[in-house]
Amino acid sequence: MKRNVELVVISDVHLGTYGCKAKELLRYLNSIQPKTLVLNGDIIDIWQFKKSYFPKPHLKVIKKIISFATKNTNVYYITGNHDEMFRKFTDFELGKLKVCNKLCLDINHKKTWIFHGDVFDASVQHSKWIAKLGGKGYDLLIVINNVVNWFLEKMGKEKYSFSKKIKNNVKKAVKYIGDFELTASELAIDNGYDYVICGHIHQPQMREVINKKGSCIYLNSGDWIENLSALEFDQNRWTIFHYEDHKHLLKDDETEEIQDINTSDLLKIVTQFT
Asked: Which range is the signal sequence, renumbered to this chain (predicted)?
């Protein structure tokens, strides 16, 4: 039984990289029927794309998204830094699929501002080669982490996250996340928004920020590499969906997979942007 959800936001999937948890994301997408699906940046990782590596589960995620757009779901693809090549298609619309750089919605009479968030990252804006090098290093760290976790599971031990450990213990990383959240929130307050929703920093979050000018709710959808998280709005409330907390309830179901798009043709379309 699929869950009807009014709005779902996912980001930082990084399809085309070794760290992407496409199978898990596909199980989640197959379990819901959203009225609106917002893809908030870095869905396909053009920076690290390799023609030799784009497994079937990654393609199936794209097919599933297209399937949503061909039926009753409004799909917004907000561009991020890793899929910035799509920015030349800003305002492109195909049926219920729209490509944009940001999105402003009225949700339950609340002004909501949605954007990826890389605009706050100086390393992305001014030194892209450094950011790309960091992206490759992060991807390698995730691959090593996956191998370690495979052995830990075999030994019956709990999984361990290298990058979370680093983020939580390196003062600069903690400060960067805090500064990011505060900057986004203060801009939202200045512009009269009730909610601001970002991705980019791979840190799921939902918190209220208050300053002298007012207040807003800051939300972040996290990622599908480590946190495996999404934002959901339904029955007038926001929640953070964590795959690990619900995976026992999700089943593999590919009956909804769109059939009229050939996998090889879809891969050719993806490679045109590399």
From this structure: none
Between the two ends of the chain, the Cα-to-Cα distance in Å is 38
| Contact by Cβ (8 Å): 199, 117 | yes
Looking at the chain, which runs of residues are DSSP E strands? 3-10, 32-40, 74-78, 93-94, 97-100, 102-107, 110-115, 195-198, 205-211, 214-220, 229-234, 237-242
Q: What is the CATH number of the domain that holds 228?
A: 3.60.21.10
Which residues form the domain of 220? 3-271
* 3-class DSSP state of 174: helix
State how many domains the chain has. Answer: 1
Question: Which residues on neighbouring strands pair with residue 178, listed in sequence order?
Answer: none
Helix axes 22-30, 56-69, angle to 10 degrees: 30
**What is the full DSSP assignment across 132-165?**
HHHHHHHHHHHHHHHHHHHHHHHTT-----HHHH
Query: CA-CA distance, 206 to 189, in Å (whole number)?
Result: 16
Q: In sequence order, what are the beta bridge partners of 218?
A: 196, 207
| pLDDT tens digits, 31-88 | 999 999 999 999 998 877 776 778 899 999 999 999 999 988 999 999 998 888 888 8
CA 216, CA 101: separation in Å to the nearest integer? 21
pLDDT, one tens digit per residue, over 214-251 is 999 999 999 999 899 999 999 999 999 999 999 888 87
